[in-house]
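Page 42, continued from yesterday. The earlier attempt failed because a stray header line got pasted into the input along with the sequence. Redoing it now with the clean sequence only.
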Amino acid sequence: MNLKKSYAEKYGYQRVITDRNSVLTYEEIDMLKLADGKSYTGIERDKECCLIVLAGTCSVKGDDFVFENVGQRATPFDGPAEGVYIGRDTAFTVTATGGDVRICVAKAPAVKTIAPYKISAADIATKTLGKGPFERLAAFNLDESRAAEMLYIGEFWVEDGNWASYPPHKHDVDDMPVEGALDEVYYFEFDKPQGFGFQAVYSKEGDIDKAYCVRTGDFVEVPKGYHPCSAAPGYKCYCLWIMAGKNRGLFSTTQEEHKWINSEYTPKGGK
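This time it went through. Structure tokens are written below.
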């Protein structure tokens, strides 16, 4: 079972995580890169999708909607990603404006028809999580405050040498409201071309026990289990996390033997 998929950046539309190459139940991921003035038109049958603008600016248009100037950052390290939610069976056209644009397209099955809307950076909640060597800034781009059927999306930024998704947590059992079963995918970029980090995925049952070296353009699927990650010293890490499931939200449980870290651990220097 190989949970890592790698995306080689190039112009055009690329399918990265599909129902044919993935162990995930609900989500699929595509990548789109357009040169200034170029367009892409698509429609997802029986699926909702969210266009997350990783870098650059674009317009997104359809029969009944027009969203201009979507995307306000030059790199993923320049604040939260703007995006556009597109409901099932809704045609859309993306056009790059003002230079190249890079977009991650997250998709999940949908029964409801939800009208498209823009996700503006000014409306995205951010929060500092953790402390000391596992402190990171997180953004919640497509959360409970926004309409969607299965998709739940956010980002985090990890300082060099730090950990994220730590203490380890999982969301693979339907035990609401404590824990919900949701697929997840992590997408990584680093602030330097040679940057790298590590991603672990391991299950409580022991049937999954994987560790991957990740670089810019890498995706790691999380079908179940705990999934902490880290950035190598000297390299800041950006991660886009995409969850999908019937119970949208942060319904997760922390690995029992590591729960003490949240309350008892004191980082060096006391911060």
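Notes: The mean pLDDT is 96.
Reminder to self: strip header lines before submitting.
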